[in-house]
Amino acid sequence: MATAGLSAVLAAALIAGWSIAAPAADLTTIRVAVGGAGCLCYLPTMLAEQIGAYKKNGLAVEIANLKGGSQALTAVLGGSADVVSGYFDHTVVIQAKQKVLTAFVAYDRLPGLVLAVSPKTTGVASLKDLVGKKVGVSAPGSSTDFFLKYLLRKDGDDPGSVAVIGVGLDATAVAAMEQGMVDAAVMLDPAVTVLETKYPGLKLLSDTRTEADTLRVFGGQYPGGVLYAPPDWIAKHEKETQALADAMVETLQWLHAHSPEEIAAKMPDELVGPDKKLYVAALKSAMAMYSPTGLMDEKGAQAVIDLFSQSDPDIAKAHVDLSKTYTNRFAAAADAKLGIKN
Q1: In angstroms, rounded to a whole number, what is the distance separating the alpha carbons of residues 179 and 270?
Q2: CATH tag for 114-207 (out of 3.10.450.10, 3.40.190.10, 3.30.565.10, 2.40.50.140)
Q3: How does pLDDT run across 160-173, given as a tens digit for each residue?
């Protein structure tokens, strides 16, 4: 009976997309859902496993690689994941639905989101030209979708005037653009760099891969990837939450101390892809994205709330409580352990 039960659990885990590994007896298993493991925006989450940071801090982390942030969000709300590695804006949007999720490590200083026009599409030179067109996002309801809607509203266009199609973030997004399945797409690296290399004249309608570009698009700082979880899970698992924060900050420090080539050498082939030189080139562009401390910038977090409140009536009515969207307690403790001065 015990064997049959174990088989059922393993089968269910495999169906859900979990990477299965038998943890050592002294390690605590944590299930982390990621909305696109190959995206460089989530690199610190994947790199932490490759350099042994999770294990060093007593954790066996099981990664569920899902299509987009909305699916990762659903996993944690449904209880099939403990923590999400996803974009901070989900903690803002979810409060409008009377739920709370709290970020406890902010590993991306910048969002890295890019709205690019398909090389197969002609006649699209501005956001207004997207009206009536098909636009790809990682998955409907994900941060890529939020970004598209924000840009359209800011431009005075109806977000409902474009057909939103889920295309993922990796090779599937590149294929959708190359084959003309969509007229444009919100993408992230390394997919953007892949397309820019193959199509030097690739039209970008918006780009947030650098601090200057982010300031131009949003008017201020705009945090990207974080680790977030339900506050009751954090309260019941403070030791594990701190261990995750320690592992992530250690990884961020390692990342900033090594070259893109050294980082790429640590990553699994399936995440790097067939062209390692392109992956390294994308990494070089993305290095400014990563935080060295894991701390959330309060002004940046408030900027996300303000922007969404301006562009989404439901979020404006919700009066999102900033203090519930994130905590710096765990990242600050990790910084103190490592002697990082803030």
Answers
A1: 22
A2: 3.40.190.10
A3: 999 999 999 888 99
User: Can you give the pLDDT at residue 207?
Assistant: 94
Q: Which two tokens stand for residue 29?
A: 């298993």
Cα–Cα distance for residue pair 137/150, rounded to 1 Å: 13
d(CA 339, CA 301): 25
Look at residue 25 in the predicted model and tell me its pLDDT.
61
Could you tell me the two tokens for 339? 């002697």
The predicted pLDDT at position 12 comes to 38
2-111+222-338 folds as: D-Maltodextrin-Binding Protein; domain 2 (3.40.190)
Domain ranges (residues) in the chain: 2-111+222-338, 114-207
Cα dist. 83→78, 103, 233, 239 in Å?
11, 10, 9, 14
Q: Residue 296 has what pLDDT?
A: 96
Q: In what order do the strands lie in the sheet with 28-34?
A: 59-65, 28-34, 83-87, 225-229, 102-106
Q: Which parts of the chain register pLDDT below 70?
A: 1-25
- On the question of a common fold for 2-111+222-338 and 114-207, the answer reads yes
pLDDT of residue 24: 58
Tell me how far apart the alpha carbons of residues 58 and 63 are, in angstroms, rounded to a whole number: 16
Kindly give, in sequence order, each residue whose CB lies less than 8 Å from that of residue 115, ignoring residues fewer than 6 positions away. 147, 148, 151, 184, 185, 186, 187, 204, 205, 206, 207
End-to-end alpha-carbon separation of the chain, Å? 54
Q: How many residues does the chain have?
A: 342
CB neighbours (10 Å) of residue 7? 10
